[in-house]
Amino acid sequence: GAGVSQSPSNKVTEKGKDVELRCDPISGHTALYWYRQSLGQGLEFLIYFQGNSAPDKSGLPSDRFSAERTGGSVSTLTIQRTQQEDSAVYLCASSLRGTHEQYFGPGTRLTVT
Amino acid sequence: DAKTTQPPSMDCAEGRAANLPCNHSTISGNEYVYWYRQIHSQGPQYIIHGLKNNETNEMASLIITEDRKSSTLILPHATLRDTAVYYCIVREGAGGTSYGKLTFGQGTILTVHP
Hints:
By secondary structure, chain A is mainly β. Chain A has strands at residues 5-7, 10-13, 19-24, 31-37, 43-50, 65-69, 75-79, 88-95, 103-104, 108-112.
């Protein structure tokens, strides 16, 4: 079956512009996660959605970052007024409630110039 | 989540077993041990997880010590495609306050050579 998909695969933007990154989870997966991986850094948790529960936003680095999940499926991560330090690969993952495995997408490589 | 310690890098000959160690001495009773790997330019891939008992699946085996303070991931017959960064993660199971997010460390870079 189809895995987690993310778009765009690459995004180059100018400092100060807003960007939206999209994640399509595996059909039927109730949990959705966003992570980012900066050059030379490990994977950093950003936000976690589980069904209709309030999302865990504890990993969002600043109020310029926000995410929503519409209809319990597709999610959009928005970064406002991008900064050069936002350059990273943004990874989305999904999982079935109560299961252990998270399935990751290929990521969106964001470059802020 | 408990902190894990892994060697930064390891080498393995193709066809031999790769044994990747992980220390998690502060693991608590309701925390699982997970292994993921990340092949260059791809998203992480789940490999295996365990709580107390040793586990085996089509990809690997997980050996957890009796005191649960350390574990070893075993790739029984490593191939060149197994070259990747391997992450050992501990996390609470469902119902725990930290359930959900994975906290990745630096991992072990495994290089399989011909």
